Amino acid sequence: MRKLLFGVPLLLVLGLLLWWWSRPEPLPVRLVAVERGTVETLVANTRAGTLKACRRSRLSFNLGGQVTQLLVDEGQRVQAGEVLLRLRQDDRQARVSEAEARLRAQRNAREQRCQQAHLEQRDLERLRHLAERKLAAADRLDQAQTRANLSALVCAASTALIAEAESQLELQRSLLDQATLRAPFAGIVAQINGELGEYVTPSPPGIPTPPAVDLIDDSCLYVEAPIDEVDAARVRLGMPVRISLDAFRGRHFAGQVSRIAPFVRDLEKQARTVDVEVRFAEVPPEVILLTGYSADVEILLEEKREVLRVPTETLLDGQRLYRYDAAAGRLRETRIRSGLSNWRWTEVQGGIEAGARILASLDQEGLADGLAVRPEEAAESPP
Fold first, then answer.
1. How far is Cα 199 from Cα 32, in angstroms, rounded to an integer?
2. Taking the model in full, what pTM does it have?
3. What is the arithmetic mean of pLDDT over 286-306?
4. Average pLDDT over the chain, rounded to whole?
């Protein structure tokens, strides 16, 4: 009996020691504090957007010819109306000179014909005075009348011939001007496809060819980006937008929605999108933007400031999270009431108070209600 009294406590002690040594170690976890901040409802692009210029012209000649003057270089800034390229023009210039000479000849001919018509009219008037005094025969008066009428008609026809010559001159000048490529607006020459002495030809119908000059107006830039068709119905013109560019990581630029495409793209059958255009509100002078940059946009649909919030990645099914019970050293599954939400933050409308510490990430394995844990560090304050 005495041995039994000594043996049972000994077994209990050994059992406790065995449990102590074999018990699972508390899981190290990272915690964050529930604090107040801004929560937004956003619509983001589904694929990378592109920075584009409001005006971009791919200029080409509408006739063929040999390049005789190349007056700009790639990257050069030009003004509206500035000459960029010229084709061989000696034959067209000769046609212009020929048309000018023909016009001068027609004007001289009109002057002669109209002077003759004036002379014939004066002779007719003199014969009429003589006929009234019976000093001129009637047949001579009739002949003078006919000559005056014919001369007047020839004079009038000369005006039509001059108009024809003027039109021909305008045509030849237009053909001459088509051999000169001018900038339709001020901008930067992005690309030149042609060298001195090369022969250029216009694009055949339906067959695109590289432009002679690619001109970009970099004074006005915007971002074109696709958004999911489901989100497009909530987007409105003028909504504020945050623009981020891969070339300027960590920086955001303010903008506004300036256009929403009136149709849905189905480039990918399972991802139908709507293109939106976003204009920059203001670009800092030290930032140089280049067309073609990849860009992302976040369209702000709704915003709440100074509300209780938690990181979205801490939520289970959007309504539950793991709260740290400091007294027991364990996680407690807690249900909350959520409000606005985005990929980063979720508004908390009830179920937890400010300052509470919660599990920062659900990426660890073995998480469960009542799990013993050990905080790796003090609670972090989210930025």
1. 69
2. 0.67
3. 91
4. 85
